[in-house]
Amino acid sequence: MASISHDFPFGIMDVVQLLHLKVRRRQVNSAYVDCPFCNDYRGKMNVNYAKDAWRCNYCGESGGMLALYARMNNTTTSDAYREICDALQTGEYYDPGVSSETIRSGSTCGSSRSSGAKNETAGELSIVPQSEKATPQQVHQTLSLLFDMLSLRQVHRTHLKSRKRGLSEEQIQMYGFKSTPPYFLCRSLTERLIKQGCTVQGVPGFYMDKNGNWTVNFSDYTSGILIPAVGIDGLIHGAQILLDKPMKNKDDPPDKPGAKYIWFSSSNKHMGTGSGSPLLFLGDLSANTVYITEGLLKAYISHALMHRTIAATAGANNTAAFDELFKCLAQNGTKLIIEAQDMDKYANDNTAKGASKIYLLARKHGMECRRLTWNPNFKGLDDWQLSLKYGEEEKPKQRTSFKEAFLWGECSFESVYRYLEEYNSPDSDIADLHAFLGLTEEETEVFCTQGDTELQKRLMCQQRKQYFRIYQLNFDGKQKTIPFAYKGFQDMVKAGYSQPPAGSYRKVYEGSIVCPCIAINDTVLRKIRSRFGTELPEGYPGKPVAPSDVLELYDEQGRSYFYVDTEGFKRVRFSPFLAKSL
Ligand SMILES: [Zn+2]
Q1: Three-class SS of 78-112
Q2: Which top CATH class is 280-392?
Q3: Which of 174, 326, 335, 404 is deepest in the core (most CB within 10 A)?
């Protein structure tokens, strides 16, 4: 049931108002406001007026209403109490000798208000009674029977099997993904569950409708794919919905993408229950090594592709649940935790904070922790694994001619005979020799009449050497995150730079490539990017070339610098002497 604090002459929404926090959206027992601590404008801080408590889902900060005021004004909770009372002119007197604990018990505020009075202060707020959560076994039984009754729509199946998700029919079956049912089935599904002996009260998603009947919270608005959260105990503790249509709030900033995932929950319904943020565990309970990532579907996909033991929470900062999990893993013999959060951990302080919490929790339970870093062109562990799965097939089938390959230094001159062999093979359907070799008619003529030495001489005249250097952001020093790491030029500008800050870079490579004389900078840069993209040359100490890197092209005439953008390159100014050397 809702717990209402009667001990204060004000509620947390009064504090929110006093602090001018922007309310983004209201729910039944809580509101989402902009977090003053991470300066995020997406309304990630949940302010619960049933509990007078707050928590930011983005930076993970949390506390009671006095702490909210105290932290923002850099004061104690006792002073916070007095100042709030003053500001609200409630006429309460505060005795400095009394601790905030006694304030909480109500001894100084004899005139505590009833919940009705509280509703008055907070305007339209009212408390919706909630059910106490059922036991994990009850939740599991009800949800697994519910999922058994549901099917997976064809459009969802196609999505899960697409290249974006890469799951097979068997994996979809095994993981138990289902489509949310239409609204009109909610009542009858619930009735069937009750008839089968399931508890529905206290199970996330279930609530009591206006007529006093139990039902379940599915609607067109929240339709999508159900992704079960199966814990280390093998029980379903809840589910996320991958929404068909991202959910936008009407006062969201226009550039804010809507929420793609929500928890299957009934926390804003009469006698409903919140889902909490249960974690997902996939694999072997006594695995030596366990991977940690964020996002349930991401974990399923990574598990399907890597066949490793993986645990995930819904968000990077949702790490509290890992404490219990790590304790359990350590007891079962796990030695190594591999933190595989999104590559955002190099750009975003909050993701970085979540990642270091994982590290500390692993250490706390006596396990080693390593950070997994991959090709930064891919954001999540699943994106990276999918690129490994599909990478080969994605390479263009179009074949390069002999001349092009030779001028780019990708084959020896002698390879011309390999091309000729293919041209002459009985099942070849190549009509035009010079087009196949990439030679001009004149060059073909030279080759046929004067032989290969003469052709080689002519081609080598069309070749030049291009010297270049690769600079990448440096995370060796104190800097743990750089706001535009692996992001495009505009993100760098947004982070307050007009040119890449050379002091944050280090030189990771210096070399040259052979290229056609006529090749322009952009073509050369593309070639460098693709050569240092996936399969890296042996001994190359850097990461694959990715956005936020700086490439230098140089010769006796001078140097030019290019920022690697998400698409293409941007000419920039750069001071190489500020960058660290290898
Ligand atoms: Zn925050």
Answers
A1: HHHHHHHHHHHCCCCCCCCCCCHHHHHHCCCCCCC
A2: alpha beta
A3: 326
Radius of gyration of the chain (CA): 31
* pLDDT band with cut points at 50, 70 and 90 for residue 125: low
The alpha carbon of 43 and the centre of ligand 1 are apart by a number of angstroms equal to 9
Q: How far is the CA of 345 from the centre of ligand 1 (A)?
A: 16
Closest CA to 404 of 395, 394, 396, 416: 416
Q: What separation in Å is there between the alpha carbon of 358 and the centre of ligand 1?
A: 18
Q: Is the pLDDT of residue 37 over 90?
A: no
Distance from Cα 556 to the centre of ligand 1, integer Å: 51
Q: Enter the CATH code of domain 136-263.
A: 3.90.980.10
Does the pTM surpass 0.85? The reply is no
Angle at 225 between CA 222 and CA 228, to 5 degrees: 110
- pLDDT value at residue 582: 66
CA of 69 to the centre of ligand 1 (A): 14
| Model confidence band, residue 98 (pLDDT cutoffs 50, 70, 90) | very low
Question: What's the CA-to-centroid distance between 349 and ligand 1, angstroms?
Answer: 11
Residue 533 CA to ligand 1 center (angstroms) comes to: 35
Find the 292 Cα to ligand 1 centroid distance in Å.
22
CB within 5 A of ion ligand 1: which residues?
35, 37-38, 56, 58-59
Amino acid at 101: E
Q: How far apart are the first and last CA of the chain?
A: 61
Which homologous superfamily is 12-121 in? Zinc finger, CHC2-typedomain (3.90.580.10)
**How does pLDDT run across 422-464, given as a tens digit for each residue?**
888 777 676 777 878 888 888 988 888 888 899 999 999 999 9
Region(s) of the chain under CATH 3.90.580.10: 12-121
Q: Is the pLDDT of residue 113 over 50?
A: no
CATH 3.40.1360.10 region(s) of the chain? Answer: 280-392
Ligand 1 centre to CA of 214 (Å) is 36
Give the integer Cα–Cα distance in Å for 452 and 455.
Answer: 5
More confident residue, 119 or 319: 319
Contact 224, 155 (CB under 8 A): no
DSSP-derived pairing of the beta strands 289-294 and 336-339:
parallel
Q: What angle do CA 243, 347, 486 make, to 5 degrees?
A: 90
Lowest mean pLDDT among 79-93, 446-460, 516-530: 79-93
Q: How far is the CA of 37 from the centre of ligand 1 (A)?
A: 5
- Compute, in angstroms, the gap from residue 59 CA to the centroid of ligand 1: 4
Stated length of the chain:
582
Task: Judge contact between 70 and 61, C-beta under 8 A.
Answer: no
Query: What's the 42 CA to ligand 1 centre distance in angstroms?
Result: 10
pLDDT of residue 432: 77
For the chain, residues classed under CATH 3.90.980.10 are 136-263
| Ligand 1 center to 327 CA (angstroms) | 27
